């Protein structure tokens, strides 16, 4: 049985959490890991409808994601959480919960400078936030507390998404949370030989 | 890998959902099943703080439990949900979601007559509800829609908790959701012989 873990992506809107998730999921599945993604928006629909963006509501939302992540990862599932999760205290609280349940918590700071984000501004949200049209917009009109010692730091300012994904896979492999790629290839080869033997 | 399932207990307060859960959990674990219990009260604390007991709030609460149950059971976990879940439509909606995710939904109607419940009234709640002191109390001042064709019907009026648990284990075994007890005993014996062989 593979050991469960929670890969917790934190970072500003547009920093690349979702892009990185989409890059990682097929690679993790290819390593034989059961994967669930708890995406900030999806979770708001399923678990937190009615909650807003005050500190209290954000904390409640993150605690709910943490509750589900811990249930899954203590059952051997690899969970990717991709939510802004701006407050350090709550991220640390979730870490403690996950670890107390025998699973591993890996904090990934998905970093990008505000300049980069404003210049990208894929959804046009930063422009609106800077113009004062969106209240409680993290990084502009609401605080973001960067992790002080995340297990992994990736930067969409300076790295390609493939490079960031490779960093994460390396970390998981070095910590025994996923099988090395060559190990799986070897198992497949052995299984092929075994079934060829049976066919004779 | 064992196939995931959701064992959904529905029934009035005091009908025996929690007692039956406590009876079943160790027996399911002994069969090698990964088990998570989503208890109505616990889930209200972790996922649904602030929700009340109107139909809308109850439906939201049950949908959230359903969301978590489906995430777990599609990853091979056996989930026991023990919540009153009074409305048929929402239970059926959750069933569809779980089944659409490749897991099995087993509805267990934990039945007890209102007379029995009022005479037991362990927490003194029925007395208060009948006196009009609790609004929206299922079965007294709020509706309960019994399942029309649950997979399993157990009755704490006429069965011991051991008998009810045995019914459920039989159903799960017959449907290939848990291993037969003798199969596990056999595996253990084989493992013992194998390790004895290695020791020589």
What would you say this structure looks like, in words?
Two copies of one chain form a homodimer. By secondary structure, chain A is of the alpha/beta class. Chain A has helices at residues 17-30, 40-46, 55-73, 88-100, 114-120, 125-130, 161-174, 181-199; strands spanning 5-10, 35-39, 78-82, 104-111, 152-155. In chain A, helix 1 (17-30) crosses helix 7. Chain A starts with a strand and ends with a helix.
Essential attributes:
14% strand, five-stranded parallel sheet, homodimer, 8 helices, alpha/beta
Separate helix tally of chain A: 8
Strand order of the largest sheet of chain A: 2-3-1-4-5
Structural class of chain A: alpha/beta
Helix and strand run of chain A: EHEHHEHEHHEHH
* Shape verdict of chain A: globular
β content of chain A, as a range? 5-15%
Give a brief outline of the structure.
The structure is a homodimer of 200-residue chains. By secondary structure, chain A is an alpha/beta fold.
Topology:
Two copies of one chain form a homodimer.
Chain A: E1 5-10, H1 17-30, E2 35-39, H2 40-46, H3 55-73, E3 78-82, H4 88-100, E4 104-111, H5 114-120, H6 125-130, E5 152-155, H7 161-174, H8 181-199
Parallel strand pairs in A: 1-3, 1-4, 2-3, 4-5
Helix pairs in contact in A: 1-7, 3-4
